[in-house]
Write a structure and sequence with these properties.
Length: 93
């Protein structure tokens, strides 16, 4: 006999187990409750986080302009290093 949906939901929340595992729909991992949580990704430097916050506030046209500027800077660096610049999108006239 299976529990009611609200009871199953409460069990899943308390035990922190997906409902599929409790219902036997997926193979249970051996001792999955003792495994360490995955390591958090390394944090971005403060400057990058600050830039991302600022970029999120831009209007779409401003964002496109910033993207074009960044792409141009990267191409300029490649040219200065003596390598041919990769082909890019056509320039607007």
């Amino acid at each position: 006999m299976l529990p009611s949906v609200p009871t199953l939901k409460k069990l899943c929340e308390i035990l922190r187990i997906p409902s599929d595992v409790l219902l036997g729909l997926t193979p249970a991992q051996e001792n999955f409750w003792t495994k360490e949580t995955p390591a958090r990704p390394t944090e971005e430097p403060v400057e990058i986080r600050r830039l991302v916050r600022t970029v999120k506030k831009l209007e779409p046209a401003e964002f496109r302009l910033l993207s074009l500027i960044a792409t141009g800077l990267l191409r300029l660096r490649i040219v200065r290093q003596g390598r041919p610049a990769p082909p890019g999108p056509p320039r607007p006239s």
